[in-house]
Amino acid sequence: MKYNGTWDLESIFKGGTNSEDVQTKLESVKEDIVRYADQLKAWNSDPGNDASTLQKILKQQEVIGKGLGQVGTFINMWHDAFMDDEHASVVKGQVMELYSEIQQISTIFTKKLVAISDDQWSKLLKDDVLKEISFSLDEIREQGKRLLSEDEEKLIAKLNKDGIAAWSDLYNTVGSIMTVPFTDKDGKTTDLSIGQAMNKMYADPDSDVRAELFEDWEKVWSKNGLVFADILNHLAGYRLTLQDAHGREGHLEEPLEYNRMTEETLRAMWSAVDAQKQTFLDYLAQKANLLGMDKLGWQDVDAPVAMGETKPTRFTYDEACDFIIEHFTSFGPKLTDFTKHALENRWVEAEDRSNKRPGGYCTSLPEFEESRIFMTFTGSPSDTSTLAHELGHAFHSHVMKDLPELNQGYAMNVAETASTFAETIIADATVKNATTDEEKVSLLANKLEGATAMFLNIRARFLFEDSFYKERAKGIVSEKRLNELMVEAQKEAFGDTLSSYHPHFWAAKLHFFIDSVPFYNFPYTFGYLFSLGIYAEYLKHPEGFEEKYIALLRDTGSMKVEDLAKKHLGVDVTKEDFWAAGIELVGKDVDEFVELTNKLQK
Ligand SMILES: [Zn+2]
To answer: Most buried among 149, 308, 356, 506, using CB within 10 Å?
Structure first.
């Protein structure tokens, strides 16, 4: 093996979850927190304050954040790689405890910033060091202006645990004990977990299996429909009460602020999607035709497409690494060198073995200023895409590592820029490399699965959530009404291309029940299209594009998206054109798919 597909945990902390080094680090973080609290108490934010005190406080925040981040990442990595290590939860608990302590102290910091007069503030930000981080400092101060008194905020933080967070936990608990009955061809019935049922329902090659599961799936969610309606109503009610107390207007203000974007931009994105919706509906119609159906059911949208006797494309881990390096090379030397470095230095845990958590992610070790990647590589083209995707995330962090800590925090909507970009380079190359038309068809279908999710499914989620929050502001929304709103949203997004819809999708989709982030859905479509828009620019002017691309990534943590796009791409994201260009790129995949499948069917 050329590349070692397991990551090196010992080089971070020796001794796993019982590591003495971990405990020593946590002790030092605790001392740093005490020092930080003292510094804050002593800090007089009246006009007499000076830039150097603020700098010292920020430095202290950074030390604590990095130390705690290093332990937190390590322990998560360990637990995901060795799921049966029960001691990991104990250390995770220690880390959580310290995070919540910092959160409470941070309110004092924010309050102090707010207390500084506007005059004094603008003078302060002229300081050489603070100038560079003025966007983030301003943001903290502006958002801080919404805060209630220190005591009230403290009470809210405490109530959250048994309030909004508890509703979210309750959802997960109910979901974890639910099962879906499934009867196989031999008449044997087994109870599938929600996760197992969902995978089978959307991905099983047999359309009867998918249809049977979908029917039971909808039944299972509707059986507990009243419970989920209660949970969703209270979760949203809690959120609306808090938004109101913080003086926010409308339910979209908070998620838009969080994603550093305007409503105009959001509307422009959705109307561009709407304008080109037909292309993707045509794709679904063609897919129905290939699967021998009149129309696809809800459960068939992501069903695998296989034409003829194609042998599925397989890669070894070494081959996938080399393939990625080869195609990154055509983009730029910095991305390529970085990727080689990460793969050669065991930043990736890719081994296919039991006792590992499913899924994939990229995480950062802040004290090392390095990333690590977790996934299970089984040899499919989609695993190669995942590896490229996570390497994209790692590269994003890498190009930002020398920036001030405060300028490294980017929001969810731009977080997927570099990952989608890297994935697109590889997915395009994979399709081009296909040796037969049949193989190409299945690879294109893989690619289009993502696009239909972004343009149709997530569109439906947004439409539903938007109408639900409007009605919830006036009172409790019944289960029946939630179903109606959901089907209306699905029909608007999917047109009449489907033969069935999923009324209880609002209950089945975990994203609606996440307490920490409101409107968890549209940032995905934003990130996907933002990245494709950049990719479209790259295809137009590939020469020297890497430098431009890096400059854009470096600013993702310190600008509003409208300014970011204007500065680096010269485009206006409040207008539909930018978004349309990205969608058109995917539209070409649909054209190719339709053309090839028509040819093969003859
Ligand atoms: Zn990602």
So the answer is: 506
Cα 393 to ligand 1 centroid, rounded to whole Å: 7
Task: Give pLDDT tens digits for 344-403.
Answer: 999 999 998 888 887 789 999 999 999 999 999 988 888 898 999 999 999 999 999 999
Give pLDDT, residue 356.
82
Extract the tokens encoding 547.
């430098």
Distance, first Cα to last Cα, the chain? 44
Amino acid at 286: Q
pLDDT digits (tens, 9 = 90+) for 279-304: 999 999 999 999 999 999 999 999 88
List, for residues 558-598, the tens digit of each pLDDT value. Answer: 999 999 999 999 999 999 999 999 999 999 999 999 999 99
How far away, in angstroms, is 423 Cα from ligand 1 center? 10
Gap from CA of 416 to ligand 1 centroid (Å):
5
- How far apart are the CA of 417 and the centre of ligand 1, in A? 8
**What 3-state class would DSSP assign to 293?**
coil
Give 364 Cα–ligand 1 centroid separation in angstroms. 13
Query: Rounded mean pLDDT of the chain?
Result: 92
Residue 283 near residue 576 (C-beta atoms within 8 A): no
What's the CA gap between 211 and 300, in Å, rounded? 8
Q: Using CA atoms, how far apart are residues 584 and 575, in angstroms rounded to an integer?
A: 15
Q: Give the Cα separation of 255 and 480 in Å (integer).
A: 27
What's the gap in Å between 522 CA and the centre of ligand 1?
Answer: 14
Structure tokens at 288: 């129905």
Å from CA of 419 to ligand 1 middle? 6
Spatial separation of the C-alpha atoms in residues 205 and 300, rounded to whole Å: 10
Q: Which residues contact 528 (CB under 8 A, 6 or more apart)?
A: 416, 420, 450, 451, 454, 582
Residue 361 CA to ligand 1 center (angstroms) comes to: 7
Q: Pick from 183, 174, 172, 218: which is nearest to 198 by CA?
A: 218
Q: State the distance from the centre of ligand 1 to the C-alpha of 354, rounded, in angstroms.
A: 23
Question: pLDDT digit string (tens) for 434-480?
Answer: 888 988 998 899 889 889 999 999 999 999 999 999 999 999 999 99
Q: How far apart are CA 17 and CA 378, in angstroms?
A: 28
* Complete DSSP assignment for 385-419: HHHHHHHHHHHHHHHHTTS-GGGG---HHHHTHHH
Using the mean position of ligand 1's atoms as its centre, give its distance from the Cα of residue 183 in Å.
Answer: 35
What's the CA-to-centroid distance between 389 and ligand 1, angstroms?
A: 6
* pLDDT band, very low/low/confident/very high, at 46 (cuts 50, 70, 90): low
